[in-house]
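Dear colleague,

Following up on Tuesday's group meeting, I ran the structure prediction for the four-component complex that the binding team flagged. I've pasted the input sequences exactly as they went in, so you can double-check that nothing got truncated or mislabelled along the way. The structure tokens for the whole assembly follow below. Feel free to forward this to whoever is handling the docking comparison.

Inputs:
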Amino acid sequence: MLDDRKAAILRAVVSEYIKTAQPVGSSHIAASPGIGVSSATVRGEMVHLESEGYLVQPHTSAGRVPTEKGYRFFVDQLGGVGRLGAAQRMQVREFFASAHGEIEYVLEKTSRLLAQLTGWTALVVEPPADSSVIRAAQIVDMGGSTALAVLVLSNGVVEKYPIELPSELDCSVIGEASARLAARVIGKHPRSLSSSSAFGERLEGDRPDSSPGPLSSAGGDRSSSEGSAAGGEGAAAKQSSRTTGRGSISTAEDLVDAVCFAIGCGEGSAESGQVFVGGASQMAAAFDAVETVREVLGILEQHLVVVTLLRDVLDRGLSVAIGVEEHGLEPLAACSVVVAPYEVEGKPSGTVGVLGPTRMDYPRALAAVSVVGEQLSERWKDAGRSGSGSRSGNDGGVRAVESE
Amino acid sequence: MLDDRKAAILRAVVSEYIKTAQPVGSSHIAASPGIGVSSATVRGEMVHLESEGYLVQPHTSAGRVPTEKGYRFFVDQLGGVGRLGAAQRMQVREFFASAHGEIEYVLEKTSRLLAQLTGWTALVVEPPADSSVIRAAQIVDMGGSTALAVLVLSNGVVEKYPIELPSELDCSVIGEASARLAARVIGKHPRSLSSSSAFGERLEGDRPDSSPGPLSSAGGDRSSSEGSAAGGEGAAAKQSSRTTGRGSISTAEDLVDAVCFAIGCGEGSAESGQVFVGGASQMAAAFDAVETVREVLGILEQHLVVVTLLRDVLDRGLSVAIGVEEHGLEPLAACSVVVAPYEVEGKPSGTVGVLGPTRMDYPRALAAVSVVGEQLSERWKDAGRSGSGSRSGNDGGVRAVESE
DNA sequence: CTCTGGCACTCGATCTTACCGAGTGCCAGA
DNA sequence: TCTGGCACTCGGTAAGATCGAGTGCCAGAG
């Protein structure tokens, strides 16, 4: 589609622009290595590249800037995956050798690591509950008319489901229910309980306005007023059906059913996977328009949007989404996303990603994101245990060669 | 210290500046209600106010701007607590009537609410674990050589402690340990286990080299490199000793000891109380210097710093900390913090706060923060249950009168 | 003694103009 | 087909020029 010379010129323009954030002129390109022609020739080629939509001029007599199409071509054909520098490889290795602890803790730290590696904002999404299996379950009487169902998943995540009891149940009922619950759900996938619990449907019938299904915009929430900040994220949807069906719990079995139903609906803590945002402050370095920063941060506050964004990109088989054309979020018009999946127990589960301006260093971001993704997969490969894994020395997936 | 007229003028200057963010001139003041004198007179008074440090001129022939001392006087003597508008009262009432669910969920939502009420960034700190009592405890075998101790606290928080087992213990040992753990810790304060736990003192198994003393900095942590983002927050301290002493766990009792020790040290998930930051994007609206935004966001990423900040301010008996002089954080030089405590089960536990530019609307922020604090206290007044509380209609502590 | 209107003065913000130079498009010659 | 040359464009910056909000001070009124 593009002959070699044009491609080389495009690559040079992109690389230079990534570095300087300034429109780049023909003479710079002519001077860069690999281009054996004069600036006049480069200019000629640039005219072509521009007419085909790979470059634009902010105005006459300015250098050229890559378009989203230009970046896309660069990423697909020219950039490759890039490599991390030695220091960064080291950093990754040390990090994964020493990062012990619960899954959330590790993921949060990972988001910081990734932010530091790339210089931009990092996004790490927790594996959704349905990729794990229930390891333990218990119902705890919290006093009053409340109980808390606690689930431990095989990946180390703990989910909580607040249960409202219609009346003071006897302690022994709760105890019995707890035991029955454990017997019934251990070893199963939490989300699979939705359908398997016959009682669920019964309950659902009892509740006219039950589970409006996440992502549906439920009712008259505070009218999303001015602040884009607090508006979005399906706040409404979650806020409503947060307590479990209170239809007719009287026996232990009823209680277990109710809990199973709640679990199946995923009404508990681990909605669709928590998001950890690292290095949000770096966003402020990406743009000089304070308004842009505001908009981007606004999006980052809407975790559901972020999760969806990453998942969408991945679902479409992409690892890079450049500009609003490809990711679809207006406020992120000047941004691109680079993502990679990671696996837990061998199954694709979570995602890691980097959010930066469209003029970010894609090869580097790709490298960082994929290394981190691999390392995370490595950590939770065998069993979904929560802690440790003292694989030092071996930095397995860290395929890191010197960067340019 | 300041005669009535000076005070009135100072009040007018502060109010005006809060509204417009522009230096305010004598004629504006003279025109505002409550000032019955000419601009010349106002000017004269302003000279005094300036010489005493309540006001400054950005440059000759500009209006005056309040100094931190000026704000302080305003807050202490002039501003009062302020009142929320009817719409906002409504919003708070609806929010607390409908916000069900786990404590973390409610607190996160609360931070958004507060951000929306004030227009600035809101900070909500989870109650520390030691203000609650353990309601349930269990040790879950996670496969491999890992186990997870799960604690349910009376305030609805669930803590997790990853435990590394030296060798494959028999399942029954874990089961027994789990039962013993429950018997031993239920009803106690988690942090009280540190000393009361016989682990350090004694208990049957004499353990020669037990307890390698967590909190000792274990490894060569990544050298806190450049990025201020990922640097701070005592990352090192936490990262290292994240797994419990693995000295010589062989019996169930050993295991229980180890877990108790870990709990006592607070090595688990609920470090010193999670922080929920709401409306961070609003920070970008507060300043037009992108660099300032970056610095402030950088601080917000360091949760430990935020917790400490809020706690410090509260400990000093303040509810407002104006400027770096009073809160001590250089990067927040242009910011003030307004805080209020909230109670769980009658004891002061968490804090809510608002972070804004020094020229924020203190009365409004104070009103919002205290109302929200009261409402949170109200919610968890009786029992530290996790969910619900359908007190609608009654908007208890929402003492809200029309604002200016 | 205090307050007020008046007045000269200051100085940042804004606008105008001029200029510079990076970068372009085009063209004639190698 | 490539290259050096050349006229041209136009954003960015610097230098005045201007405007006006706001000040300090002072003399006169209350």
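Residues 13 and 24 of chain B are 6 Å apart (CA to CA).

Cheers,
M.
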